[in-house]
Amino acid sequence: MPDDFEAMWASLAPIGRSASSGGYFRQPFAAAERELASWFEEQALARGLSLTRDGFGNVVAWLGSPGPRAVVTGSHLDSVLDGGAYDGPLGVVSALAALDLLVSRGFSPSRPLGVSVFVEEEGSRFGLACLGSRLASGAVSWDTARSLTDRSGVSVEDALAAASLSGPSSSSLLDGVTTFVELHVEQGRDLVDRPAAPIGVASGIWPHGRYRYEFRGSADHAGTTRMQDRADPMLTYAMTALAANKQARLADERATFGRVEVTPNSTNSVPSAVTAWLDARASSSSSLDELVGVIERQATERAARDGTSLTVTPESVSGAVTFSPELAARIAAPRGWPVIPTAAGHDAGILSAAGIETAMLFVRNPTGVSHSPAETAAMSDCLAGVEALADVLADLAGDPVGDVG
């Protein structure tokens, strides 16, 4: 017999978990993430689901067979570095449990119904978020993706080969898919202030981007070099991080430097280079452009004063996503669920941009914390999420007329 939600959740808990921090390290094509991929396929086969895969490791498990006007749910299994348990896996486990619930009700879908897992959603290894869904939807070409490298210099192509994967084929995993529903733990504190609403529906995703800032200066001795004689890129970076924080606060947007690499990374040396990655998000594309522009301008001005140089390279930029208002209303209105925006990126946003009718369900997060070992959700809310997802899938995949998708 397939495991129920709580048993599945317990079986995933140890995989990729750090004994020291309690966080998760489930990077794409590494051991923990591949173990999770095998776990998913085992769970799917135990339910008699049929599997379709692509050469990047993306997979859809079908109740029946794939075909036209398909409805797909699911999420991802990879994590950020030292991440939380719920971001991604909650959507996958809930999807399997929702199928179980539908089967127990005697539900027979009128449209093909599948559960998906997309690889490298977080971008934690190769730097491009939602890489699996971008490849599956054609938003990124294989020629572009194959040469991306991780922090150790391993390319996507080499990582795939090590995992016995061949790379995307010409046939699309998403052929026939017209509707996608992703359940996800809420990443923020909207639902916690609505005691009667453990479930929310997404209205859209803020535009966001990742930008590589390369500060260059001159390496020198930390003891013998006078302060006025230095060209220290760390100073330029430090001012830039403070400027990003200030500008984001003034605009009520988001700007974060969360990753930094220093050369030569020596305690008693003035560094020659600092490379830092800015994550910026805003309520509109124009606001994002304005925020990023003013941060870069202030950083460039500071570099001129410090005798350093700056090169800024956008590594990925995603525009605003507005999920189908009609689909959101169809899901939310009869059930009294609130419709709320999110500043976090998701595979659902990529599929929506590719023309697939898309919706998201959020499960209440009592702390709002995410991308952290402290990320959590109450089991009662998770089980409510399973019920909610099952009801939504029954509505969408059981409709023979098909006024959605």
UniProtKB/TrEMBL annotation:
<feature type="binding site">
    <location>
        <position position="210"/>
    </location>
    <ligand>
        <name>allantoate</name>
    </ligand>
</feature>
<keyword id="KW-0479">Metal-binding</keyword>
<dbReference type="InterPro" id="IPR010158">
    <property type="entry name" value="Amidase_Cbmase"/>
</dbReference>
<keyword id="KW-0378">Hydrolase</keyword>
<feature type="binding site">
    <location>
        <position position="122"/>
    </location>
    <ligand>
        <name>Zn(2+) 2</name>
    </ligand>
</feature>
<dbReference type="InterPro" id="IPR036264">
    <property type="entry name" value="Bact_exopeptidase_dim_dom"/>
</dbReference>
<comment type="similarity">
    <text>Belongs to the peptidase M20 family.</text>
</comment>
<feature type="binding site">
    <location>
        <position position="371"/>
    </location>
    <ligand>
        <name>Zn(2+) 2</name>
    </ligand>
</feature>
<dbReference type="Pfam" id="PF01546">
    <property type="entry name" value="Peptidase_M20"/>
</dbReference>
<keyword id="KW-0862">Zinc</keyword>
<dbReference type="GO" id="GO:0016813">
    <property type="term" value="F:hydrolase activity, acting on carbon-nitrogen (but not peptide) bonds, in linear amidines"/>
</dbReference>
<protein>
    <submittedName>
        <fullName>Allantoate amidohydrolase</fullName>
    </submittedName>
</protein>
<feature type="binding site">
    <location>
        <position position="184"/>
    </location>
    <ligand>
        <name>Zn(2+) 1</name>
    </ligand>
</feature>
<dbReference type="InterPro" id="IPR002933">
    <property type="entry name" value="Peptidase_M20"/>
</dbReference>
<dbReference type="GO" id="GO:0046872">
    <property type="term" value="F:metal ion binding"/>
</dbReference>
<feature type="binding site">
    <location>
        <position position="76"/>
    </location>
    <ligand>
        <name>Zn(2+) 1</name>
    </ligand>
</feature>
<feature type="binding site">
    <location>
        <position position="268"/>
    </location>
    <ligand>
        <name>allantoate</name>
    </ligand>
</feature>
<feature type="binding site">
    <location>
        <position position="87"/>
    </location>
    <ligand>
        <name>Zn(2+) 1</name>
    </ligand>
</feature>
<feature type="binding site">
    <location>
        <position position="281"/>
    </location>
    <ligand>
        <name>allantoate</name>
    </ligand>
</feature>
<feature type="binding site">
    <location>
        <position position="87"/>
    </location>
    <ligand>
        <name>Zn(2+) 2</name>
    </ligand>
</feature>
